[in-house]
Amino acid sequence: MKKLLIPFMLVLVLLISACGNNKETNTEVKEPEATEVAAEVEVETSSDTIIYQSENGPIEVPANPERVIVLATFAGNVLALDVNLVGVDPWSKMNPRYDLVDVEEVTDESLEKIIELDPDLIIGLSYANNVDKLNEIAPTVTFTYGALGYLEQHLEIGKLLNKEAEAQAWIDDFKSRANAAGEEIRSKIGEDATVTVVENFDKELYVFGDNWARGTEILYQEMNLKMPDKVVELALEQGYYALSFEVLPEVAGDYIIFSKNSDSDTSFQETETYKNIPAVQKNQVFEVNAKEFYFNDPLTLEFQLEFFINHFLKN
Asked: What percent of the chain is modeled with pLDDT above 90?
């Protein structure tokens, strides 16, 4: 299986150490005065930082981060919570759904550029280069992709950015709207209609399960649309499966969502094998720019939900 399958999974692994500085009390200072000083220090610290319980343990992070770098996947989560980004990974940078014109492109190898950007928080995935060095630049928090549900992941980003309430409010509203849209779509296309999500990358084609972005979480988890049995067999457990173009008819549902990379090989669409797929013949293949569909953050999810409503419910 090619690592290119999940292009946005660049990344970091986190080992955080927080340094405490315990000062001895001067024995000549009266006890009430020492207590007063300690209280002042505690108030100042708590107003500037919070302790986030990361998957690698507690870490002290800014209470109100102002210069965040995202090294993979979570740029849209940060943008949705209205927190300033100063650096993002290449895959986020090329996403036309994100407003990142003034944000620098960085990787976990571009340490000098990261230092110049002076971040107060770094976020990424739990596979990394230069973790220790990154952590010396700014508190660095990583997440294991897929360890949390897609909405749980946004809530965790909310906690990290000290915006848990805002994240939860969006989650509640989004679930309500997606569930309602699913009921309407199933009513129109039928409870037994199946949907397949595919994406071309380089010279291969991939089919996805119910938790690998590309709109899969909305379609299968929130809207309760059905996955073809062959897709369940091949992709549900692992999340994705690579197949040859010739096998596409075997996994094709009544509807196909085609997350399309126009700069990769799309010649299979000109073959008779493709043209004879029932979903193709019935004009039930919905194409979308893959670069807009890679992720599952709130900005992308809102776009995906609108896309599905417009295409499934069109007259």
From this structure: 80
